[in-house]
Amino acid sequence: MNEINVSTSEKDRDIRHDWTAEQALELFALPFADLIHRAQTLHRRYFDPNTVQMASLLSVKTGGCPEDCAYCPQAAQYDTGVDAAKLMDVETVLAEAKAAKDAGATRYCMGAAWRSPKDRDMDAICAMIEGVRGMGMEACATLGMLTPAQAQRLQDAGLDYYNHNLDTSESFYSEIITTRTYADRLDTLQAVRDAGIKVCCGGILGMGEAARDRAEMLVTLAGLSPHPESVPINMLVQVEGTPLEGREELDPLDFVRTIAVAKIMMPASTVRLSAGREEMSDELQALCFLAGAGSIFVGPKLLTTANPEQDKDANLFRRLGIHGEDIGPVSTDTL
Fold first, then answer.
1. CA nearest 278: which of 238, 232, 320, 323?
2. How confident is the model at residue 2 (pLDDT cuts 50, 70, 90)?
3. Which of 65, 253, 262, 324 could form a disulfide with 54 if both were Cys (CB 3.0 to 4.6 A apart)?
4. CA Rg, the chain, in Å?
5. Which of 95, 173, 164, 113 has its CA nearest to residue 303?
6. pTM for the structure as a whole
7. What residues are labeled active site?
8. Would you give the DSSP letter of residue 136?
């Protein structure tokens, strides 16, 4: 995070945990130009507006997940053409990580299609984390639900961030997932926070949720203390064979509004422009950066869905005058 001349009094005023759904909806209802100006002004207090962090994501264990997340092509019960695979070996993962670093990534994220990791898999996962940190990149993982003991093991290995999205509001959650509860999600987030790992937590738009659901999701995120350091905002990628295939597409400007409201409510957090960029125009992505998005995933694939090619991202960055963030050397004191 590149903090820019933010006084303590400004921080105290900006960072709130008492937002209400009504207040969030009022932000959503602002004239577009006013909303973007407010979000961009706050973004500039905490970040360089012309710098975007580039992260890379690898599915280290694909398919066969017992959960029934309606958006996910990796759920075992849906016929999506995604075959179940075993956990990748450590050497292969680290070779992929080096290639990502050589392509400009400063954070490497590893995802596994599990309800929760088995203890027998933790040695390999920890070795992957140690290897990524040893390359000078931040390490992030998303492995499903964690026990406090598992979270502590990941922290001991040097994990920087743990991703565990809320996906949507608590009231809409059961329309999307029935195999675990909203409380289960929050319990894992607490275990991660208690272990001293930074939290990466956001949601997915375009699943059929109402505007109030988006507002309530952001209120829940902003109610966490501290705020999640990373807040990914995903556009649903509709995959054939999943229950959400055929949902009405979200108005792109509603997506931009959500980025902006997330930035206003959590100004010191990195709002991450995540899944769905493959279908987004350059103009839509530019509006997202203007609204306060400060990070993207680079590389040809996000777990199992497509992502823009590196040359396309580089061309867009050049045209916008944006450059990738260099996070500098990562301490290996915990390794």
1. 238
2. very low
3. 324
4. 19
5. 113
6. 0.87
7. 65, 69, 72, 109, 140, 200, 272
8. T
